[in-house]
Amino acid sequence: MSITYIPRVTQLDSLQLDDELEELFKNLLFQATKFLEPGILQPILPELELLIRSWIFKYSVWDKKCTFGQEMLSLKYKSENFSKSKLYWYYGYTVGLKYLKERALYSFTSNRKVQSVLNSLETFQLIGDIFNFLRFIQSGKHPAFIDFILGIELAADKVIREDLTDFSWTRELLWHNFIELIGTTLSLVNMFGLRQKLSKVLKYVWWRNHVRTSTKSLPASMNINTVCASCSDKPILPHVMGCAHIFCYYCLKANKIADADYACPKCYYNGKEISKFIVL
User: Fold this and answer.
1) What predicted TM-score, i.e. pTM, was given to this entire model?
2) Start and end of every RING-type domain (predicted)?
């Protein structure tokens, strides 16, 4: 008897079990080769991981239409909508794509074009995972992004985890994964660029009286009480950008590199040129 409803926590547990199983095989490989010469496996490490993932795929999804993690929890893909062509696409996404990424990281480290393409693919994949996870929380179907793309669904042969009555564990697991996704997403956001775009919008509303790009300013002066306009400490290698305030060289240069339209946090003057402060 096939059961339609499957708890979300059970589906997420199956993904976690699959990841742990792969890590277990890798650890066994490293333990078996730990007495070899250091670094001997590094050139072929992507190929070894490809063999491990291919072996896992062959004896799980290819033969049984379920991963080992799903099999442990009595889950299985519905065979009526899991054709052989979808199996190939599933393998290409879950195994082949990871291998291409890892091999490119080893072989094309200095190739900026290849690294840029990889970063773009990784970003698109991450965005897809985020939206799929939000959709999964709402619908309870397709916990993995590739499942949603191929339209394959899970079914349970029997009721599992009948003793799971405290749904706070489910909520805690879902929120934990959601917070991890938010943290990963925020790490990819360019805060300086975001601030620049917000500044362009806000300066036409209520910030227009503060932001200045070409107005004249008083000459900078320095005394014993002068502090950096950015870090509020004594300026190290004092530099200016056209306003009356003094910066540390590192503070000013780093902010200008990150955001070309960086404005003075004290007077909002947006100077384009950085120069060393000279005491007259």
Assistant:
1) 0.58
2) 228-267
